[in-house]
Amino acid sequence: MTEELELTGQASDGGGDEVVLTPAELIGRLEQARMNEKFAPELLESKPEIVECVMEQLDHMEENLKRVKKEDLKVSIHRMEMERIRYVLSSYLRCRLVKIEKFFPRVLEKERTRPEGEPSRLSPEEFAFAKEYMIHTEAYLRNVALKHMPPNPQKVDLLRTVHSLRGPTRLVGDSPNPEHTICCPPKLTLTP
């Protein structure tokens, strides 16, 4: 666990910039990304390099545990730590998927209209999921509602209509409320 991992990021000049992290720092970054994503009203920028490094680290830990005696107490402690890391990783990814499902028209529209140099908020896998989710939702709404209506309303673009409806209730694809109050504990306590 004392080895260091390389995390590749983009520098402001456009070149690759490698940051060397210990596994503890990597897990700390994952936990911070999870908390930021959980408490942000909108979908934040994806962190695929952190996710990839954590998955590689979990695979490496699993391989190391296969070579150790099963009776050793350290094995069960390391397995519990691996399960904790898997939970944090899946919680981060689940939180992102929930936001994509909830606001998919807005997320896809923002992705289509983002400037060329601006980084994507979605990973390629998340973008494919959002497009597939939109296709299935539209097909479902057509099969459940539109096919039972007269021919004229059947030509309506359902997702744009649902997305544009604003009212007292939050509808599918409605944008997140940035004015919503968020309460969270402070990371450190300041003393006078």
Shape: elongated
Structural class: mainly alpha
Order of strands, main sheet, comes to 1-2
- pLDDT averaged over residues: 79
List low-confidence stretches. Answer: 8-15, 165-173
Gap between N and C termini, in Å?
Answer: 38 Å
Largest sheet geometry: 2 strands, antiparallel
Give me the number of helical elements.
6
Strand content: 5-15%
Helix and strand sequence: EEHHHHHH
Tell how many strands the DSSP assignment holds.
2
CA-based gyration radius: 22 Å
What helical percentage do the residues reach? 40-55%
Structure description:
The protein is mainly α. Helix content is 54%, strand content 6%. Strand 1 and strand 2 form a beta hairpin. Helix 1 crosses helix 2, helix 1 packs parallel to helix 3 and helix 4 packs across helix 5. It starts with a strand and ends in a 28-residue tail after the last helix. About 9% of the residues have low confidence.
